[in-house]
Every structure is written in C-alpha cells, then in structure tokens.
User: Fold these one by one.
Assistant:
Number 1:
Amino acid sequence: MITRENIAEATKKYIEENGMTKSELSEKIKVSRALLSRYLSGTYDSDPSKIENALLDFFNAGEDTQTDTEHKTDAGKRDIPEFFAGQDAVNVLATCDLCQKYTALGVVVGRSGYGKTYTLKQYAKRDKVCYIECDDSMTCRDMIEAVERSIGIPKCSGTIWTRVQGIKEFFNINTGYLLVIDEADKLMTKYSSKKMEILRTIFDQCDVGVVISGEPNLEIMLKAYLPRFANRADYFVKLAGLTDEEVRRYLENMDIEEKALDELVYRGCNSNTGCFRLLNRTVKNLMRMTADNKTISSMDIKAASNMMML
C-alpha cells in the first residue's frame, strides 16, 4: 500500500519499472518537473503536501484516469509571487512594525536591487504609514512639502520652521503614525545634513515612529556626519540578499531544468551582481519569451539575457 511515508520510493520504482521520465510523470500529475525532481531527490525544503497529494491521487486513481480527477494541482503554472517574503523582507517589515508600535527610530540599509524599496512600499499600504521616496534634487522645502503631502495637511507658504511646527503638531495630535523616508542617503552629503537634522527634530519632538532607508553608505554617513542621529537608532537592519533556498522557493511554481535553475540561483545570490531585481527581471523576460507550459532551459535564459543589460 502506498502512503505518504513511502510515496517517494514508490514513485521512483514506478518510473524505473515503466521506463518513464520524470518529465512525463510530472505532466500526468500536473506538477512541474523541477518540483518533482527535487522532491524525489530529497532536496525539496518546502511543504511537500501538494506533490504528495498529486502522487497519491495518481496512484489511487490509476494512470489512465488521472487526467480526469478532481484533485488536480496547478498544472503548468508559471507564477511568481507578487511579493516574496524572504528573510530580508521579513526583517524590514518587522522593523517598520516595531517602530510604528513603539514610536522608535529604525535604519534600513541594503544594496540597490535587494528589495528594500518594494518592501517598504508594501508596508506603506497599512494605515497611518507615510512613505516618502527622496532624490538628490530635494531641498529642505521640497522635503517638508513631501512630508506635508504624505500626511495630508495643506501646503503653506510660511518659513521652514513654521511648516515643521505644523508637521509636529499633526503627529502629536494624531498618534500612531510611522514616517518612512526611503533613499535617505540622497538627503545628506559631507558638507550638509540639514534635511536629516529636520527629520531628527521631528522624531525627537513628536509622537511618531521613523524609519530611514538607503544604500549601505547611509550607515557610514550617519556615523561620520550625524552621530546624534545614529545613536538614536533603536533598530538597524542590513539586508543580506537572497539565499539559495529562497531563490528556489521563489521559483517553485515554474518548470525549470536543473541547470537553468542553477543559473537563476546564481543571478539571485552571487556576491558581485546578484540581487532580487536581476533575478526578477530575468524571470519576467523568460515568461514573456517562452510558451506556456514549456520547461525553461539554459538556452532560454541565454536568449533572455541577450535582451538585457547585464
């Protein structure tokens, strides 16, 4: 009798006795070949229930009737998560939650492409979260106006000091807010940190949590030029990038040859250029260029790469 405990060995025996390939069996049970292969080799780290249910249905119903069973899994799916909660994303979300809950100051740093901005924007969908994405051209007045817009108070024509008082009054009356300042490294140089000092004043004198985020040099600049800001940080997150296991989990609903999967893992994890953005761009190009239900190969990745600036 085939059970969950012996299903893997029974499947390998069935494939061998019937001269069947893993690809042929994966088509019958409507699970990608890559998932089936990892499950049978013992390298599948996620919940195996989906694959085991498909295999049990196949053996219980019989090969000829399996395609008509009601217990089909997602055949040929080529889905990637809209938001992937890897460890970096979990750490960023947790920091935002703590800063909002305890009116604390958090600092998030990470290389470009690691997903910090996308994660912060996901958190900004929550109530009482004000998100601002900065750029190099911002003046102090521009930044103050961006804060005013994010919290929904009318723009006024007073001095910088007057407008900051209005922002502080809003946060002290309306408690429970989080102010997220993304790309904060663009607000300061070795010669000027006025914009960051304004943010520090708002944090010091208001009942509001603040999270600032930027490239790795944000940490260096804060410690070198704004120690009064740096020593107020209650939480600090330094993004580490995707792991091998996370990339494989991100791609688990795609049918990818093992060699091709290894290449995508490298694009997501290597220490030089590897990042979530490069992985995501490559995968989306592959999905556009290849037919539905086609197993993605190394040649497909090469073709997709020829259309990208790597």
Note: The first strand starts at residue 105 and ends at 109.
Number 2:
Amino acid sequence: MVRATASKAFEPARATFTEAGEVVILTGRTLISAVRAPYPYGNEFIGQFLFALQLCWFPMLISTVAFGFGAPGLQAANFLSLFGALDRLGGFFVLASIREFAPFVTAVVVAGVAGTAITADLGARKIREELDALQVLGVDPIKNLVVPRFLALMLITALLDIYAVLFGISGGIGAEILYNQPLGGFFATLFANASTTELAASVIKTALFGSIIAVVCCYKGMTATGGAAGVGRAVNEAVVAALLGVFFFNYVFTQTMLATNPDLQTIK
C-alpha cells in the first residue's frame, strides 16, 4: 500500500521528466534532420514563416508599446523624476527593453499565437492519423513537418525581437514626452549603454526561445491523444511548458552572458 501511494505521488514528476527527455530527443532528431540532405521543406518553411508573421506582428506591436510605455517607461520615469535624473531613462531601457522585455514579450506572443496554432495543427493531424499515414508512405514527419516549423519560429522570433526593441523604446520615448522632457538625454544615455554585444545577445537569445517553443509545441501536437478534447489539452500544456522552458533558459543565458561580459553590468 505504501509503495502504491508513493508511486502515485511521484507519478506527475516522473511524467514530467519523461516528457522532458522526449523533448530533448526530438530536439536532437530535428537538428540532425535540418542539416542532413535532402531538404524538401522549403515551401513549408516559407509558408510557416509567413503564417507566423501574419499572426504575430500586430499583437507584438500592441504588446511592446504597452510594456515599454507602462512598466519600464512610466514606472521608471516616475522613480527617476524623484532624483531629477529622467535623462537616465534611456540607459535603463537598454537593460529593460533590449535585455529582458523585448525577448520576453516576443516569446509570449509567439508561443501564445503561433505556438498554439502549430500544436493544434499537428494535434489534429495526429488525431486523424495523418502522421501515421505519412510514415507508412515513407515520409519522415520530423523532416517535413517539424524542421520547417522549427526554422521558421527561430527566424521569426529573431526578427520580431528587433521589432519589439524598436517599439519598446518608442514606449520610453512616449514616457519622456509625457513628462515634458527633451529627448536628447534619453538618446544620449541609450546609445552610451547600448552595445553590439547586448543587441546580438538579445537576438540570439530570442531565436533560441523560438526553437524551444517550436520543439515543445511540435512535441505536444504530435503526441496528442483523446480526440478534440485531447488537442485542446495539448495546446494548453504546450504554452505552459514552452514558457517554463523559456524562463529557465533565459536565466541560464543571461547569467552566462553577464559572467562572460562583466562590462555589461556597468551602467554608464
């Protein structure tokens, strides 16, 4: 009885670690399929890229402007105004927008919009046994379905990160204008603290966010069971798991970047 109770108590943890291992295996198979000839997924890659771009560009616009204007914009400006240092807001935006907010908003929007669509699409194909039919016909689902979505989300998140940085900074400009401050100090401290390393790290980190989202969403879709209700559960689980993976990876990546580039910790 004790053994059965303990086994039941640890079942969720065991299932979580099992899924994590299967996602890692799928990641390895995806990377191998992406670099190994042949490359039949060109049209699918372009279609998925345009599909994700069409879905994500407007939510990204609204979210980045709102985040930039609200959290690091108004809140930081209100704090800095107590010390008469509103010209330092530009330097703060390098930390807030380029390093954290832009990648996070991009990951959340891509996971919530494009990631859910990918999970629902592959989940519906799994329920209709289309994936099994492809394997019977000798078509590799990973090379033809997972790889193009993996590459498309990596590219779209990297590009949307630059998009998010630009519109996030525009939110800071709006906060400066609201406080009737000249923009010279904002841009002076922004460019004094911004660096190629910071921007490159932001883009690379966000591209890797896209790879995490793609693999998790593809895995959840391709393992969906239980009919339409199972696809719905897979979509919910995919978003949660993808964002947890993004948060964990962000911590590791940011700490590694700051440890290898200690000059980025100094605000000029």
Note: The chain is about 85% helix and 0% strand.
Number 3:
Amino acid sequence: MNIQEELKKVNELSYKLNTTKDEKEKNELNDELKEILNNLKKDAISKFQSESDIKKFLDNISRFNNYSFNNQLLIHAQSPDATYVAPLRTYSHMGYMVNKGAKSIKIIIPTFYKLISVKQLDGTSKLKYSTELSSEENEMLKDPNNKDVTLYKEMLGNFRIGHIFDASQTTMPLDEINKELYPTGSKEDRTIMTETFVKAIYRDGFKVSFTDKIENGAKGYCNHKDKLIVILDTLGTDMKLKVLIHEYAHALSHQHLTYNNQEYKDHRDKYETEAESIAYVVSKHLGIDTNDSSANYLYAWSKNKDFQEIEDSFSMIVNNSKKIINNFEKMYEKTLNNFQEELDQIISI
C-alpha cells in the first residue's frame, strides 16, 4: 500500500465531505473514508514482523504519547526509527530549522463541528452550527450561567493531513534528545514518583496498599472488586515502581474482569502482556530502566491473532499509556513541591 497516495485520497474525500450538502453523498464519502482509514491501520499493523518492530512501536508511544493510536501507527509505518517528531512550528519555536528538502511524515488530524441548542421565543429549541450563531448568541454561549444558548453536541466533521518531521530531519542536536526524553533520576526521585503514582491511582478510584508478604509469591496484584492495588513492600525502589505501574495498567484496562475471573484465567497471557506493555511505555517515558521482554511478549501474543483483536489491544495500550503518563505529570509537580516543603521543614528544625 502506498501510504502517501491513500492519505491524498483522505484529503480529497474530506474536502468533498465538507462541501457537499447531499446527505446520501455524505454517507457514501464517510463510508469510503472509514474504509481507507481501516486499511491504513491494517497495513501498518501487518508491518510488525518481529520483536524489534514491536519494541520500536512501544518506544514510539513513550516518545510521542501526545499522538492518537491511528497516528502512532502512521508515524511508525512511515518512519519506524523516528526519535522525536513535531510540526515545523514547534521546531521553529525551539530555535531549530527543518532541513531543506526534508520529506514530512504525514498524520491525520480530525476536525470537529459544534451543534448549538438555541432557545426560541415560543419556548422550543433550534439546533444551529456554531458558525451560524449571531454575535449576541456567541456571547450567551460563553456565559456558563446562560441556559438559552448551550452546546448540544460536538461531532466529527472531516479530516485534514498534518505534516510533522523527525528530529533527524532538523538542526536539532540529536545527542540532546535522549536526555530530554529519558531523564535519569536518583533514588529520591523514584520515591517521589512512587508517591505521585499512588496519588494518581487514588484519583482513579483505587486504593494502594503495601505489604510485607503476598501469599502466592506475586510482587503485586490488582483487585478490581475491592478497587485495591497491593504491592510487595520489600521490593527494590525501581522494581516497586514498575510493579505499581503494571498494576495501575490493570486497574485502568481490565475493569471488565471485575466479576469474571475465569476470563482472566482463560486469557491470562493477553491481559498480562497488555499491562506489561503499558508499564514498559510509561517506565521508558519516565527514564526508569526497562528490558525488551515486554516487546517479546507482545509479539509472541499478537502474531497468531486476527486484526481486530490486535487493533483492540494495541489501541488500549496506546490510550492507557497516554492516560497514565498524563495523570502522572499532572500530579508530579504538586508532589515534588510538597516533598520539598517537608524537606525544608526538617532542615529548619
């Protein structure tokens, strides 16, 4: 499959979809777009031919976690060895230039439109596109206390093609990238990270308990029924953190197993591989030592599965890796500040 040609079709179909007023044609264009996007995903996933391919994909998720699952696949299909990707304007703001003649990596950017409910004089409501609102109605929409003009629904309109570049295509010094992407930290940093994850997990509705012994010899487990994550407290600092992330991944990804333990037993390799892959991505992003076993497990599990099952698992790995990283980063600065305040108090005593 020629990715560039297919993306060109996406651009053309999206333009037609945005301009036509014929509902039948809209539906036909939508179906055609969905088929192309689905085929692009199938083609990208078919390129995972080895553990090395899977590892590169997982590494990409840790680096480019602000991109959607579909775009992660597109980036990997076009540039599997990419180290850091961003649009031209990002590099410009950082003070770097894209090399002359560099060929961009294409991604798909969805555009949305808003339907607004506008109350009429007779008490009924009329739906309008946000672009159709008068200046007065726009002001009413911005007012949180106003109930006469409100957002009814945000809907997918069409797609456009975005252009990004790998750092190797720019004047950005490559030796600085790993320092930025994968910072190394001290034991003290790991303690703060662990505390941050505990707080993030609590915000997601689970409690965390540390214990000196787990009966079956496990390093940790997630109890969905009681919404509890239990971690062996005798583990080393890094291992304790990695196990905590692994169980956090179970908490977010496998809630459907709450009352179905048999399903977990029947497909344990699938669920453990998903959680371990998420833990690998998050750990890699945070500069915590990782090994390649996660990629090996994911490849071994996926090579005999059909497309839909692989897509579902890979999509979940991308989305929940992003969620855990975002949840961590929201809490980290606050935790760091609290830790510093406690340290200052101890020093002043």
Note: The mean pLDDT is 86.
